[in-house]
Design a protein that fits this description.
Largest sheet: 8 strands, mixed
Helix content: 25-40%
Distance between the termini: 37 Å
Number of helices: 21
Structural class: alpha/beta
Shape: globular
Low-confidence stretches: none
Number of strands: 14
Strand order of the largest sheet: 7-8-12-11-10-9-13-14
Length: about 600
Amino acid sequence: MSLNATVSRVTKRIEDRSADHRAAYMEKMRRAAEEGPRRAHLTCGNQAHAFAAALSDQDTLAAGRVPNIGIVTAFNDMLSAHQPFETYPAIIKDAARAAGGTAQVAGGVPAMCDGVTQGQVGMELSLFSRDVIALATGVALSHNVFDSAVYLGVCDKIVPGLVIAAATFGYIPGIFLPAGPMPSGLPNDEKAKVRQKFATGEVGRDALMKAEMESYHSPGTCTFYGTANSNQMLMEFMGLHLPGASFVNPGTPLRDALTVAGAERALEITALGNDYRPVCDVLDEKAFVNGIVGLMATGGSTNLVLHLPAMARAAGVHLALEDFDELSSVTPLMAKVYPNGLADVNHFHAAGGLGYMIGELLEAGLLHPDTKTVAGDGLSLYAQEPKLKDGRVTWEPGPRESQNERILRPVTDPFQPSGGLAQMYGNLGHGMMKVSAVAEERRVIEAPARVFHDQDSVKAAFKAGEITTDTIVVVRFQGPQANGMPELHGLTPTLAVLQDRGLKVALVTDGRMSGASGKVPSAIHISPEAAAGGPLAKVRDGDIIRVDATNGKIECLAPDFDDREVVTVDLTGNGHGVGRELFEVFRRNAGIAATGAGVVV
């Protein structure tokens, strides 16, 4: 099958837009690669410091004849998804020794849990933690003693931050090793019902706590299809995982065998071997297009519309919202995973998972087949699935038929003909909406605005019974320059209750919603943000706003709208408490949402 014309055209546009930046980036990477293995340029004293704690590996490292892997880990045991990484360094080191190489923990990076900080002040540091992770990885790899790197991270900002750093150190190879999802617990739709009942006072905190603990119950990634699992999907579509590695549960023999295989592969693809595959060659324009197609086909998290442009810029590639919108228009929605359906990622994996999906999309000409990956040349390698034989991983052809078409469908019979994201334009600014879970009859809403400056005020108005008619809820001053652009996921139960009561409601915000944003139409990431004088700062209570996801329009219909002065608010309270003091320089220098809200890229 020839490449889809839209995919081809969008890729060419990205290549043309990126040409100068990409060429300059690749030239820097080539010059760095020509210097050879990094530790060869260190003095004897430098090397002695680097190898002093390596114990039995000291002599091997000092000889400098075998590749040395740098391990960058986001382990902590508060994040369920990252707790399994505690044992990974020992597994990687043993596997490296057995294969004739060495490995060292280069450094750790912070990893905060958005589940813990949802609705809390700490969430105002969440998006900026991506840039901190990139910086921390830069510090870890700056010792210049590594021939390749393995990156241990799963969740929301961790993988994007690690990818930004991996691209910056793109002259060395890098492999991402995941930890996998926790086993299925309380179904996500049942958990959501309990949350809504709590929001209306039908059940107490004891019932809510019981439901939450039954849902998030063990080590591994949360099982809904939010940002963390969207990250894992991306790493396969973009060729940075080993094939089929994303959704194997922690603590299983196959999971450990994949970690061993990842360490072995990280040795094989260094400049000291015969299959040199630096990250700069993997992360090209085609890889990012493949990632966007994967995001659309799976109905993935809206957060990746922020992260992918930032990740791409680190590799000299410039993405725009129009690229997401056009690729979405030709990519069929093939999966129904919560919040877009009742299944979780374990059910999705059992139904055929990413191997089936990649095979289908390749056959339909919707993916670039000729990408370079850490596993080898060509994305067809990722239509395979790993199997455990005699304690080691082997790869076999993946399923060519869905095992459950209520969860995963073929390209020829998708859940809907286009992907899950729509670009939004109008006199209110430029943003996007995740539409894959929004019913067709709710994709166009025209109603009076109710303006708020934080999500707690929305909840208070709801509890006071103030929202009783069709309403466009405007939550502004939630962008990166205002307060770090926290997720507003805490609004989901409230808005869902209003919708279930028969009201037409929509959210318009310069803030974020997560991959679990649900069935309420939400125009998000609106830029320019209100704090930068964007048009959201002109909206008044009672203005008629039209949110039209079908045509990608978001407009205030007030006749005097363009002539109004922007409203300003006192944001000084966002600058202190829970570490916010340390991030003033980030708030001052953050880019706009449309280009990734980045600070370091």
